[in-house]
C-alpha cells in the first residue's frame, strides 16, 4: 500500500509506516500523475483535492485532510470515484480557543476593561466554539451562543437569535463557510449588519474569512468595529488595506499549535486503521516532546504557587506560552513586502498548547479556573 502525505504533517511517517510505504509531498508539488499508484492521500488545507487532481488516482481508496475544514475538498468528485474521504474535525479546537483567549486578554489590557464585565457572542458552536464558550465562562463573561443549524439537529442545544449576537461587546466567529440553506454564512457580516454595529464592539475572525464582507468593512472607513483577523477573505492574497485597520492581524495560524497539527495526523491514523481493519500500534502521546522550559516560562508557572489569579497575572501567564503580539508584528512586517500569507503559514514556528507544562497552584479556586482555561495544574 502506498500512502502519500503532506510533508508538514507531524509524525506521519511514524504513525503510518507500519501500514504501507509512506511518501511525503511538498506544498504545491502534488500532481495527478503522482497519484497513479497511490492508495491513500493525506493532505492539509493547502492542497485542493478536485476532479483534476483525482484524474489519475484510480487506485485511491481513502483521502483525508489533517485539518478541521474540508473547503479544499471537492466532495462530489471524491464520491464520483467512490473514494472514502474524511477530515480531522476538532483537531485544532484547543489551539484556536487559546488564540482567542490571548486576543481577548490583549484587548482588555490595551483598552482597560475587565473581561468579566463583557458579553461575548460565539457564532458557530462546534468543537472550537464550544471550547471558546468554556473559556469565556471560566473568565466570568456573559456568553451568547448562536448556531441555528446545530439547534435544528440537537434537541439539547438552544441558539440565540442573530439580533442578540449584534448586541454583544465581542463577537467571535467559529462557523463553517456555507453558501446555501436557511442560514448561509457567506458574508453573514455584510454591509447592513456591519453598519448596525458600533465602533466600540469587537469582532474576532478565527474560522473562515468569507464570513465577513471585506469590501463592506473597507467602505466603513473609521466606523468599523474593532477587528482581530486571523482568517481572511481571498486567502492567500488578502487585503492589506483591511490589515492596516486591525487591532490584531495574523496569518490564519490560530490553530497552528504542535498539538493541533499532530492531533490532525493522529485522527487520520485512527480513521485509516478503522477503514482498513488494521490494529492501531501508535498513539499521539508517544511522539509529543516535552516542552522546553525557558527561564521566563519557569518563572511564570512557579509564581502561581504564591499569588492569586487575576486578569493581569493570567495575561502574563498566557504571554509566556503564546505572545499574540509577536505574531501580529511579524505578520505586518512580512505583508509590507508580500501579497501572500502562504510563506508565513508554511514556516510558522509552531507553538505549544497550555497543557504542555504543569503549573503548581495552591489555591483551589485558582486551580479550577486555570484547569477550565486548559492549563495543566497540580
TrEMBL record:
Residues 4-276 form the D-isomer specific 2-hydroxyacid dehydrogenase catalytic domain. Residues 112-254 form the D-isomer specific 2-hydroxyacid dehydrogenase NAD-binding domain. GO terms for molecular function: 4-phosphoerythronate dehydrogenase activity. It holds the Pfam family 2-Hacid_dh_C. It is found in: Cytoplasm. Belongs to the D-isomer specific 2-hydroxyacid dehydrogenase family. PdxB subfamily. Homodimer. This is Erythronate-4-phosphate dehydrogenase. The gene is pdxB.
